[in-house]
Amino acid sequence: MFATVFPQLIGLCTGALLLTSALMVWRHSLLASIRLLSVQGFALAALVAVIGLEEGEAEVIIVSVLVLLVKGMALPWVLAHETRATTRTDEAPRLNPTAGLLTVALLTILSYVVASRLLSGDTSISAHAAPIGLAMVLIGFLLLITRRQAGSQLIGFLVLDNGIATVAFLTSGGVPLFLELGISLDVLLVVVILYVFAGRMRNKFGNTDIDQLRKLHD
Amino acid sequence: MTPVEAGMLGQVALLAAAVASALLVPSARWRSRVSGILCALLAAAGVITGAIALTGGRGALTIPTALPMDPLVLSPDRLGGLVMVVVSVVGVLASLFGIGSARVASASRTAWASMAVFLFGMQLVPAATDVVSFLLFWEIMTLGSTALLLAHHATRGTVASALVWYSAMSQLSFFFVLAGFAVLAGATGGTGFAALATLDPASWQASLAFVLLLLGFGGKAELVPLHVWVPRVLPEAPGHVAAAMSGAMVNIGVYGALLVCVRLLPNGPAWWGVLIMALGAVSALYGILQASVASNLKVLLAYSTTENMGLVFLGLGASVLLRGDHATGAADAALLAALLLMVSHAAFKATLFLGAGAVARSTREMNLDRLGGLGSRMPWTAGAFGAAALGAAALPVTSGFVAEWMLLQALVHGSRVGGEVVSVTSSVAMPLAVAVIALTAGLALLTFVKAYGIAFLARPRSAQATAAREVPLIMRIPLIIGALLVIGLGLLPGPLTEALASAVGPAFTPDVRTIGLAGVDARGIDVVLDPTTFVALAALVLVPVLAAILISARRHPTRVSPLPWAGGGSRLRPRMQYTATSYAEPLVRVFDDVLRPTRDVEVTHVGESRYLVERVHVEQSVSDVIETRFYRPVLGLAQRFGVLARRAQNGSIHRYLSYSFVALLVVLIVVSL
């Protein structure tokens, strides 16, 4: 029964991941992006849970709960808290939405081409979905280089991280619990540091536009 | 544990103690005292260790590493012991002098901690028996000296720019040394000096390594064209730091060159000798020319170091060349002369810089044109500085004289063995070298007459010079020790020369003996010098004459009568005296083409008439030709490249992220192709 539903569930979760990533490029509002990030976190947790059910390992289920707590709740909450404190909550990206979505399409195609070369020997269902993870990494990078606000940078960074996690789960059937715990804590730490940093920036410049950060001082 | 091992471990312990006291003692006064004494003890441990190694003591410390190469062993041989002694004696003097420097920057935590690190690195470079530990201590020495200079950047703005020059040139030297050793290690497959010494000196790798190492060590020894940092850095350093750098650190450069020519690659081809001689001759001439026209006392001393190191390398080069010609006696004498020059230079240059430090402390003035009359105000400093200046001018009864005498003897006797001309190269090179030394000695005499005469004699030319007072006892002691060393080594050259001769074995075996009252007998070239006997004989003649003159003067006291017409001379003012600039004026005119001075004469007329002059302002500055003609264009080129590179590196985070993104995309596309 589960074996027949499994491919659809994997497709559903990865589709949600890709869709949320693409929508983040399209939307300008920071709060909307954060909601999308939260949805993405839930989708990632669901993906991990599906893989865990298919493989029948309790440890992977625990990891999925951890992902849900950290990526679906804790990080979006921290970001939303930071964003509400800023005066500007919308973004003026360097790329207009149409061009952004076109670029997303191109990056997705590229990742499918690359993945078909790299994973040509692997015919499992999860390996088929792996290009989505690669596409998310590239989309996260795109967000990093096109967004100006420090908050958007954080979102781009987290999408990139989600992409890496997706590739890891899909290709190797999940990472050990300890490793995942370490990675999650690292990400949480980076976000907290950047959160403090953004707060400092806002105090100093009145906004969090990182274009201001061009000169080195000693 | 042998005494040498105990000595080296003692240096490590004293380094730790000195750094700890520099960092932990809160009051600046006490910090100077405690750290200064610990630094002096550290250097004294170096003196003892080096002296034991020089007299044949052995011992080895192994630094444990996990690196796949020959073990890192510290074990000074006789030559290393000699250099360790020379460097450490200067270290003792500089540390003692430093105790008295009350200036806040000199007594800071950074200054004392880095002073200890600097001394430690310098003292252990000669103990290294492999490339890695040599470079390790070399870098410790360089970093220590850089931090030591950095401690003064808060007081003067020019320190920062001088430090940039120093760091850049130090790294350039390090690069050359590293590259040279890398070539040797690549050719022989080992990193220990014993392994490197197996290379055939006639091979091309040996020649390439020789040129690279010569440039690297020449840079540390302040040779032209790598000397540009010297006239910038040494004037910025306080007296004791400049003494440690110019009196001790340059010897490490000489040690490196000796290591190459005596230990690693003896019996090199003749052109090596010619190259070293040329480098030395150019440095000697250029250095003393710049020194003779300099009016800043420390700049003068700094350029004089370049001159003396040039002479050292001239002797070393002559030794390599003569050895190739099988004129062994003269070759050994030339090498001994180089070592004597190194030792005597360390003694008098350290004393001179300490003297300059004392003057700077009392007057806060280094411009000779504004000094004068310090002889009666600072008699101890003046006496020590005067003795050291005699040494620098290579006048008799000083160590400088013995050294230059030995060098000239070696060169004069070098081109012929038993009446036969040994080779065309040396019969051309030796007379030229003698001419260079003659010109250098003449200019050195002028230079130091100026340095001593303008600063210490005549009337004070400024209020600061008038108000100068003698420095405290703790600063006088190292000055006096230094002056005694200069005179002592000059009066008793026999034992010193024998010790030096034992240091260069077994590759070189100079035959020298002590003769008469500690005189020297160089049997290889059949020459004898016995200064003490000479002085005793001269005293036998002169004492009765002087006594007779004094007695007759007592009987006929001279009458002092006011001059009826003195032409203005009866109201002699300080401004009527010679200044350093006017004293050097003839020289500047003679060597106009080399020095290229810029003169600025500004005449202010009295308001009513153009025929009456109110004041004349003359300013003359001599720039370093090598810096303006060679370094500036290279720097300009680098600057232009830097401007181009800044377009790619504009500081924008987005720009850098884009680079990474594009790189990632390119990699992915290449992978999928």
Written account of the structure:
The complex is a heterodimer of chains A (218) and B (673). By secondary structure, chain A is mostly helical. Chain A has one domain. Chain A has helices at residues 2-26, 30-55, 58-85, 97-118, 125-146, 150-172, 177-205. In chain A, helix 2 (30-55) packs antiparallel against helix 3 (58-85) and helix 5 (125-146) packs antiparallel against helix 6. Chain A is globular. The mean pLDDT of chain B is 87. Chain B folds into four domains: 1-268, no CATH class; 273-553, no CATH class; 577-625, no CATH class; 629-672. Chain B is mainly alpha-helical. Chain B is globular and about 105 Å long. In chain B, helix 3 packs antiparallel against helix 10, helix 12 runs antiparallel to helix 17 and helix 13 runs antiparallel to helix 16 (399-414). The longest helix of chain B has 36 residues, at 328-363. Chain B is built from 25 helices and nine strands. Chain B starts with a helix and ends with a helix.
Computed structural class of chain A: mainly alpha
Percent range of helical residues of chain B: 55-70%
Strand order of the largest sheet of chain B: 5-6-7
Count of all domains of chain A: 1
Question: What are its keywords?
Answer:
A: mainly alpha; B: 673 residues; mainly alpha; 4 domains; 25 helices; 69% helix
What is this structure's SSE topology?
The complex is a heterodimer of chains A (218) and B (673).
Chain A: H1 2-26, H2 30-55, H3 58-85, H4 97-118, H5 125-146, H6 150-172, H7 177-205
Helix pairs in contact in A: 1-2, 1-4, 1-5, 2-3, 2-6, 3-6, 3-7, 4-5, 5-6, 6-7
Chain B: H1 3-24, H2 28-54, E1 61-63, E2 72-74, H3 78-99, H4 109-124, H5 131-150, H6 158-188, H7 193-196, H8 204-220, H9 230-236, H10 239-264, H11 270-293, H12 297-324, H13 328-363, H14 374-377, H15 379-392, H16 399-414, E3 416-417, E4 420-421, H17 424-456, H18 463-466, H19 473-491, H20 493-503, E5 512-515, E6 519-522, E7 527-529, H21 531-555, H22 580-590, H23 592-595, E8 597-605, E9 613-622, H24 625-648, H25 653-672
Antiparallel strand pairs in B: 1-2, 3-4, 5-6, 6-7, 8-9
Helix pairs in contact in B: 1-2, 1-4, 2-3, 2-4, 3-4, 3-10, 3-13, 3-19, 3-20, 4-5, 5-6, 6-8, 6-9, 8-10, 9-10, 9-12, 10-12, 10-13, 11-12, 11-17, 12-13, 12-17, 13-15, 13-16, 13-19, 13-20, 15-17, 15-19, 16-17, 16-19
